[in-house]
Amino acid sequence: xxxxLAAALGGAAAARCPxxxxxxxxxxxxLCLNGSLVAIPDTIPELTKKLDLWGNSFSVIPAGAFLxxxxxxxxxxxxxKVERLEEGAFRGLGRLVYLNLASxxxxxxxxxxxxxxxxxxxxxxxxxxxxxxxxxxxGHLGSLTVLDLRANALVYLPDMVFQGLQxxxxxxxxxxxxxxxxxxxxxxLPALRRxxxxxNELQALPGEALARLDGATRLDLGHNPITYVAEEALAMASLxxxxxxxxxxxxxxxxAFARSPQLRMLDLRENQLQGLPPLAGAGGxxxxxxxxxxxxxxxxxxxxxxWLARARVQAEGACAAPPALRGRPLDSLKPPEMRCSRLxxxxxxxxxxxxxxxxxxxxxxxxCVCSPDFHHGSCENRDLQEIPRDFPEDTRLLDLRRNTFxxxxxxxxxxxxxxxxxxxxxxxxxxxxxxxxxxxxxxxYLYLTDNRLSTLAAxxxxxxxQLAYLDLDRNAFTRVPAGAFQLxxxxxxxxxxxxxIGELAEGDLAGARGLRWLYLNRNxxxxxxxxxLAPAKMLEKLQLERNQLVEVPTAALRGLSALSDLKxxxxxxxxxxxxxxxxxxSSLQHLYLDNMxxxxxxxxxxxxxxxxxxxxxxxxxxxxxIPNMSNFTGLEILNLQDVPFHCDCQLLPLHRWINKxxxxxxxxxxxxxxxxxxKVKLSTTFQTCPGWGRGEEANPEKTTAAxxxxxxxxxxxxxxxxxxxxxx
Length: 728
Prior knowledge:
Belongs to the small leucine-rich proteoglycan (SLRP) family. SLRP class IV subfamily. Residues 324-364, 690-728 are annotated as: Disordered. One of its GO terms (cellular component) is plasma membrane. By secondary structure, the chain is mainly beta. Among the domains are: 18-192, Ribonuclease Inhibitor (Leucine-rich repeat, LRR (right-handed beta-alpha superhelix), Alpha-Beta Horseshoe); 368-457, Leucine-rich repeat, LRR (right-handed beta-alpha superhelix) (Alpha-Beta Horseshoe), CATH 3.80.10.10; 573-687, Alpha-Beta Horseshoe (Leucine-rich repeat, LRR (right-handed beta-alpha superhelix)), CATH 3.80.10.10. 6% of the residues lie in helices and 16% in strands. The two termini are 52 Å apart.
C-alpha cells in the first residue's frame, strides 16, 4: 500500500513540474534557473525540499508565496531582481533552514518580512541595497546561526536591532557604510562568536556597542578609518582574534586591550603606526602583526621591543626608518641598534571626549507609541493631520507613515537632535517648507515615498547636513528639483523612481558631490544633458530602467570614473553604435541592456569593456548576432535568453565562446529552420562551417555532456555560480 502511495505521489509530482523547471522527485529538488519567471510557479510539487529559483525576475515576493510547498528546507532566490518582501512572504515555511536572497534590490526590512521562519539557520542577504533594518525584523528567527548582510547600504544600526537572534553565531556586516552604532545595537546576541564589521566607515572603535558581546571570539574591524584606539577601548571578555588591518591607526593606548584578557592575536597591518607602547594590559597576547606600517626603529621603540621579549609575543613587521635599519624584521633587532635620533614621534591624538547623552524627560505625544528601549517613536496610520511634537529628545527612529499631513512646516521636529531616521511615506505631502528639517543635525535617512511633492527648494533641507539617504519615489515630480541638494554634501543615495521626470538637465544635481546611487527607474526621461551628471563624480550606480531613452547617453557618462552599475533595461534603444560605453569602460561591472527591442549592436559597441565586466543582461531583444566578447573573461552572469539568434557560420565564434564560458546563458537559435529551438551551445548547424573542429567543439560528446546540468555543479562553489566569492 505504501509503495503504491509513493508511486502515486511521484507520478503526480512529475506531472506538476512547471514548464521551465527541472524536477528531481527522487531527491525532492526543483531547479528553475536563469528563467523568465515573473511569479513563483504554483505547480511546484508539494513534497519539494530544495527549490532553486536563481536568476528569475520576481520584483515582489507576495504574501503566502510558498504555501503550496510546506516541506521546503532550502530556498534559493539569488539574482531574482526582488525589490520587496511583503508581510508574510515566507509564511508556512516552518521547516526552512536555508534562505538565500543575495544579489537582489531589497531596500527595507520590516518587522513582518521574515515571519514564519522558525527553523531558519542561515539567512543570506548579501548584495542588496538594504539601507535600514527596523527593530524586530529578526524577532521570529530564533534558530538562526548565520546572518549575512554584507555589501548593503547600512549607515546606522539602532539599539536592539538584532533582538530575537538567541543562537546567532556569525553576523556579517562587511562592505556597508556603517558609521553610527547604537550602544545597544548588539545587545541580545548571547551566542555570537564572530562579528565582521570590516570595510565600513567607522571612525572610532565602537567600544560601548561591542562590550555587549562577551562571548565573541573573533572581531573583524579592518578597512575602517579608525585613527586611535583609546584606553580600555575594547571590553570583550572572550575575544581571541582582533583584526584592525588597513585602517588609519596612528596610535594605540597602552591599556587599550586591558579589558579583553583572552586576546591572543592582534592584526594591525597596513596602518600609519610609527611605533607602539608596551601593551601591558594584553597579558595573553601571543602574536601582533605590524606589516606595512612606517615603523620608526629608534630608541622610542625600545620599550615596546623589550616588552615583546618579556611577554614572549611574536611580532611581524619591519622597520621603515632610520635608513640604516630599513627593511630589518622587528624580531631581528637588538636594543643597542635602536638609537635615539632627532626624529620625534607625533603626539598621540587625544581621546575623543564622550558627549553626555541628553536625558529625556519628555513624554510621548497623545496617540503615539514611544519605546525607550529602541529610542523609537511611532504614530503610524493614526489619521493625524498635523505633525505631533513632544517626542523624547533621544528618539532616533520616528515613524509617521500613512497620515494626512499635506505639508511639513518650518521647525516641525523641535529638540530631536539625535533623530537618525524619519519615515513620512504615504502622508499626502505636497510641500516641504523651508526650514522644515531645521535642527535634525543627526538625520541620515529621510523617507518621503508615495507623497504628492512636485517641487523642492534647497532651504527645505537646511539644518540636516548629515542626510545621506533620500527617498522621493512615487511623487509628482516632472523634473529633478534643480539645486535642491545644495545643502546636502553627504547625500549618498537618491531615489526618484516612479515619477514623471522627462529629462535630466544641467544643474539638476548641483551640490550632490558625494552621490553614489541614483535611481531614476520608471520615469519618462527622453534626454540627459551632457553635463547633467557632472556634479556626481563619485556615482557608482545609475538606474534608468523603463524610461524613454532612444540612445545610450554616452556624453552624460563622461567623468563618471567610479560607475560600476548601469541599468538601461526597457528603454526603446534600437541600435547601439561604436564605443557607447567608453567613458565608463574602466569601472563598469554590471550592465543591464535587456527588454529593449534592441535590433542591432555595432561590432565595436562594447569597445573598452573587458575583464572588469561581471554581469551582462541582454535577454529579450531582437538582434540576431552580438559583438565579439572574448575578452569578457570576468563574466559571472550572462543572460542571452529570448534573443533570435541566426545560427549560421557567422555565429561560430559566439558558439565557441559560450562553450568555454561554463555559464548558463540561455541562448537559443531562431533560425535556420533546422536549428530553431536548439541551444546555441549545442546546435549542430556549425559543423558545416570552415574551421569547425579547431575549437573545443571538435568533440561533440564532450560539448553535450558539459552543457547538461551536472549534479556536482549544484554545490554553492559551482563555477556556474562564480559570483558567490567569499568576502569576510
